Amino acid sequence: MIIGIDIGSTTTKAVSIEDGKLTRKIKARASDAVTAATGAFGKIVLENGIKIDAVERIEITGAGASKINNDIFGIPTYRVNEIEAIGIGGMFLSGMSNIIITNIGTGTVIIEAGERGIFHFGGSGVGGGTILGLAKKLLPTAELGGIMELAQAGNLKQVDLLLGDITDTGLSFLNGESTASNFGKMLDTAGSGDIALAIINMVYQVIGVLSVFAARARNTGRVIVTGNGSKNQIGQKVLADISAMYGIEFIYPEFAEYTTAIGAGLSSN
Ligand SMILES: Nc1ncnc2c1ncn2[C@@H]1O[C@H](COP(=O)(O)OP(=O)(O)OP(=O)(O)O)[C@@H](O)[C@H]1O
Ligand SMILES: [Mg+2]
Fold first, then answer.
1. Could you tell me if the CB of 27 is within 6 A of ligand 1?
2. Strand, helix or coil at 83?
3. Which superfamily, per CATH, for 88-154+191-258?
4. Any idea what DSSP says for residue 71?
């Protein structure tokens, strides 16, 4: 058995891989990388009654991986490049190759993965962390559940400048409902729900459009969306609108929040 651990900027994920298959998964949180790695390892082992002897090796990746320089509890421990891990995990979970993978974590990274190899296409600091950070100063709650609840009742017309606000004719493939400027209107009557929705909308519009440009640049019509941020229901709706507008398909594999950890576990280090 191989244990893959992804020490992300916000969350740590651990998975077990046996005979090339994903068998178990857990999430953990800790304030430092060593506690995160040992804690996640302890959690997956204890919660599943795994015998330590059965663990052949540990593969660590993610932002915190560079802080782990020794074997964990005497088990051979290796570091895996995070881009490689996301590429391997994204191809495994989607069962597809020659794809763009957009990993929405605290920030966002865009990767191309296929027969030619796995490459870092680019990315953006706009991600899940942006939603939480803006919420801290702009909303009465900075907790994701509360932000989502507020956003359910939000109205973008209170916050965003829409094309219909400034022109009667639309612009090429854009119509009156398309965004001309995120936060570009901000009426005095804008409430917390409107702002919550506008924050999520802006984050996923940025991520969606960057993903579309990456997909077009690499002649593919498919983007695999991974990371905890891929689970955001409102974000998925924003991406669906972008999909309709640009003709690029966004695909959400099951267990996508474990993509990076799975890729580490499957890497042939
Ligand atoms: N259930 C959820 N639905 C939607 N978004 C979520 C959920 N849980 C966490 N998030 C968002 O996902 C972000 C963390 O995602 P993830 O755990 O993939 O990042 P990470 O791996 O720690 O960070 P990075 O990959 O950028 O180093 C948080 O900022 C939060 O906004
Ligand atoms: Mg991550």
1. no
2. helix
3. ATPase, nucleotide binding domain (3.30.420.40)
4. -
pTM of the model: 0.96
Structure tokens at 59: 């593969």
User: What DSSP string describes 12-58?
Assistant: EEEEEEETTEEEEEEEE--SSHHHHHHHHHHHHHHHTT--GGG--EE
Instruction: Specify the residue for token string 């994903």.
Output: 22
Could you tell me if 7 and 62 are in contact, meaning their C-beta atoms sit under 8 angstroms apart? Answer: yes
Domain-by-domain residue ranges, the chain? 2-79, 88-154+191-258
- Estimate the crossing angle of helix 144-152 against helix 192-217, to 10 degrees: 100
How buried is 132 (Cβ within 10 angstroms: 0-12 exposed, 13-18 middle, 19+ buried)?
Answer: middle
Helix (H) or strand (E) holding 100: strand 99-104
Give pLDDT, residue 171: 85
Please write the tens of the pLDDT for every residue from 40-78: 999 999 999 999 999 999 999 999 999 999 999 999 999
Our mutation pick for probing the ligand 1 site, out of 67, 86, 101, 106, counting the most ligand atoms within 8 A of Cβ, is 106
With b for 16 or more beta-carbon neighbours within 10 A and e for fewer, the 219-255 pattern comes to ebeebbbbbbbbebebbeebbebbbeebebebbebeb
Name residues with Cβ closer than 5 Å to ligand 2, which is an ion. Answer: 8, 105, 260
User: From the alpha carbon of 129, which atom of ligand 1 is closest?
Assistant: 29
Quick one: CATH architecture of 2-79?
A: 2-Layer Sandwich (3.30)
Hey, which of 5, 7, 11 would you mutate to test ligand 1's pocket, going by the most ligand atoms within 8 Å of its Cβ? 11
Structural tokens at position 268 = 């042939």
